[in-house]
Design brief:
Number of strands: 2
Order of helices and strands: HHHHHEHHE
Structural class: mainly alpha
Keywords: Signal
Distance between the termini: 53 Å
Strand content: under 5%
Strand order of the largest sheet: 1-2
Number of domains: 1
Bound molecules: 2-acetamido-2-deoxy-beta-D-glucopyranose
Radius of gyration: 16 Å
Protein name: Cell wall protein
Largest sheet: 2 strands, parallel
Shape: globular
Low-confidence stretches: 11-17
Length: 168
């Protein structure tokens, strides 16, 4: 009985991790409230869901991740939370698009510690197995990204089933 409960909650946690990721990222940025000016972490946290919307520009979350580091500093806790945002899956509406959009701006993110991280993509997309494995490993060991956009890095690492999107 107990084992069953544990399995059910583990499955629920996995589903939640995927569909509730904006919430998780917002929460982890919210917890950075000891950094920056009072209220700054909360304000930045409140901006995270908007940049992860299906219709948001793919570069917007990278610019927000830079803003988080600029405002809150480069403490490892701040970098880790901002890195989560860079590596996050942007919402995806499979009935409106068949492939994800990745940012093609070579200047983003500007923060050195956030470069070389590639994002998760919807598991329904062909090639997502490669990309999602790359996304996970890039959080601990970023790929080489000198002169490359996130889109360029993803492609160099074997995932190209996406639309490159310039910063708007
Ligand atoms: C890209 O992914 C879509 C959705 O899974 C798939 O239909 C398409 O064939 C893929 N394209 C390439 C070039 O892999």
């Amino acid at each position: 009985m107990l084992a069953k409960v544990i399995i059910v909650s583990a499955i629920a946690a996995i589903a939640e991790a995927r569909f509730g990721q904006e919430g998780a990222i917002q929460a982890s940025i919210q917890t950075l409230n000891t950094f920056g000016q009072p209220g700054q972490a909360a304000t930045l946290a409140g901006q995270t869901p908007g940049v992860l919307l299906a219709g948001a520009n793919a570069c917007a979350k990278l610019a927000l991740a830079d803003q988080i580091v600029t405002a809150l500093g480069n403490d490892p806790a701040v970098i880790a939370a901002a890195a989560q945002l860079v590596g996050a899956e942007k919402n995806f509406n499979p009935s409106a698009q068949s492939i994800p959009t990745l940012c093609s701006d070579v200047t983003l993110p500007a923060t050195a510690a956030l470069r070389g991280i590639v994002p998760l993509v919807d598991p329904a997309v062909l090639g997502s197995d490669v990309e999602n494995a790359n996304a996970a490993s890039s959080l601990t060991k970023p790929f080489s990204a000198a002169g490359l956009s996130v889109a360029d890095v993803a492609k160099a690492q074997g995932f190209s089933n996406f639309t490159a999107q310039a910063n708007a």
